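Quick note —
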Amino acid sequence: MGFFNFDLFFYIIVNYKSHILTMNLLNISIIISAKNEADSIPSLFNSLKNVDYPKDNFEIILIDDNSTDLTFCKAWGFQNDLTNLRIIKAEDKEYQGKKGALAVGINNAMNDYILITDADCCVSTAWMKRYSDKFNEGYDFLFGNAPFINEPGLVNAISRFENLRTFFLYTAAWKLHLPYSAAARNFGFKKSSFYKIKGYENTRETMSGDDDLLIREAVKNKMRIGYIPDSDAAVYSVSKDTIKDYLAQKARHTKTSIYYLPIHKIALGGWHLINLAALFSLFLGFYNKWFFVPTIIKILADLLIVKTNEGKSGYKFGWFEIIYLQVIYEILIVVNFMNALFRKDKWK
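Predicted structure written out below.
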């Protein structure tokens, strides 16, 4: 009888703790904008099926942004497996491009906590739990790591390296209390906070900017912005296949930086100019050997930055690979900026 009472007591304690943990899990709406992503969404939905989070505590909203392929049909086929999935056609968008589709999803969300990811991504199993824990600390906006999957090819290597350098910059800026950007595919916010800053209303300068310009508005309104470093909260995606597609994507992203806050433009502009000057001082070294010094310092600093951050960002680069990819990266900074100035905005 005594053993039975102890067993019953143990059962009650375990279930009570489980109940408390479940109570702390927030109700979350996952918003996904998809345009001609028929080939991508199966991988995303399969990763969402395996996410470690009670189904009763979240919903998935996919907004089909006037796709001309089988995106809608492919998504519809997952409704038996994902009973918390809703599919909405983006017929009357308030904003152009991806922002308009996302706004449709956010307006239709039943929950106050929103997670954004892309249709060509795969989420980690603890993704939602990490966001729930962080939101419980009182943050308005959150962002996490979004590495590219390691695949063969120079374009993939360039994309992964650029992603690592971007990861270093926006996490460093966040630590300095100067957040300016986030990866839109691993991004979250309170719906009430989103509406407090008028949603995407003040980000109309460019078709893109659903992440960094929203961060800009959050900073202007003194919102609390947090970062989730956990590797099991990362969101993975595939990089572009060709240099043409890569340059088009980067031009769109770079164009958004024109509309950053002045302090962010000065900080980022100064950082990139110093790096470019140090790199190209190499050529002046043939006239005066002292011009080799900035280049040598830069190379050593690049090696230190990459090796310090590659584990946190989910990457691994060789020593020689870091040197030549850094040169390509700096040159593409200029190319992407020029391309952004003259390229017309286009959402897919």
